[in-house]
């Protein structure tokens, strides 16, 4: 789950940082990402915390949102019917852009409110209202869709391996059951044969 608080970063270019859980675009899976909001309105996310001060290297981000083109942010409780990955929807929110809506989860309600407040403050810096989607893209450098496909392939590989293991285990169990049944059957036959021999001997004595 997302981190409860944002890190303090001594860098004038960075306005806010913290872990958020983001829903993927293609497979709708949830991933923990380190988000960094820059003063130029670019919100970049990274696959992991860069360590140290929390300032990542240039070009290592997995995706970018242009916050200046945000149309609105919505609280989790204001999106009825959406399946959030946590029980407290107050720690969730959505960032609506002309070409995509990002669904995000924080570790704490206060952190979610902080993110919405600072994103809202930057949202309309390039005009008097929400962007209509023209004149550029609100999402750039979003290479994580390829990663999600790779993750899906890995998941399918793991699933296939699990199924094969279950199948082999099932075969082994079936083989063991058959062996026990055969042993039992043989024991019964030997016992019956001994009984018949004993009965024949008794008849011979008479």
Helix content bin? 25-40%
Low-confidence blocks of residues: 127-134, 148-160
| Biggest sheet layout | 8 strands, antiparallel
Strand content: 15-25%
First and last CA, distance: 87 Å
Oligomer: single chain
Q: What is the C-alpha radius of gyration, as a whole number of Å?
A: 31 Å
Overall structural class, as computed from helix and strand content, comes to alpha+beta
Mean pLDDT: 75
Number of helices: 2
Total strands? 8
Query: How are strands sequenced across the largest beta sheet?
Result: 5-6-7-1-2-3-4-8
Which geometry do the CA atoms define? rod-shaped
What is the element string, with H for helices and E for strands?
EEEEEEEHEH
Fold and architecture overview:
This protein has 206 residues and is an alpha+beta fold. It is 37% helix and 21% strand. The protein has helices at residues 109-122, 144-205; strands spanning 14-23, 30-38, 42-46, 63-66, 72-75, 92-96, 101-105, 139-140. It has an eight-stranded antiparallel β-sheet, with helices on one face. Strand 1 (14-23) and strand 2 (30-38) form a beta hairpin. The chain is rod-shaped and about 110 Å long. The protein starts with 13 loop residues before the first strand and ends with a helix.
């Amino acid at each position: 789950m997302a981190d409860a608080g944002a890190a303090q970063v001594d860098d004038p270019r960075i306005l806010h940082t913290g872990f958020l859980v983001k829903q993927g675009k293609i497979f709708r899976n949830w991933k923990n990402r380190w988000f960094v909001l820059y003063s130029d309105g670019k919100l970049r996310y990274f696959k992991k915390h860069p360590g140290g001060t929390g300032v990542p290297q240039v070009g290592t981000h997995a995706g970018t949102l242009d916050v200046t083109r945000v149309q609105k942010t919505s609280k989790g409780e204001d999106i009825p019917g959406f399946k959030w990955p946590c029980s407290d929807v107050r720690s969730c929110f959505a960032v609506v852009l002309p070409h995509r809506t990002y669904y995000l989860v924080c570790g704490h309600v206060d952190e979610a409110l902080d993110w919405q407040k600072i994103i809202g403050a930057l949202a309309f810096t390039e005009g008097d209202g929400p962007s209509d989607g023209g004149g550029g893209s609100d999402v750039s450098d979003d290479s994580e869709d390829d990663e999600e496909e790779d993750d899906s392939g890995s998941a399918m590989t793991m699933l296939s391996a699990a199924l094969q293991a279950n199948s082999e285990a099932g075969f082994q169990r079936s083989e063991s059951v058959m062996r026990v049944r055969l042993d039992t059957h043989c024991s019964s036959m030997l016992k019956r044969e001994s009984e018949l021999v004993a009965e024949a001997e008794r008849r011979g004595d008479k």
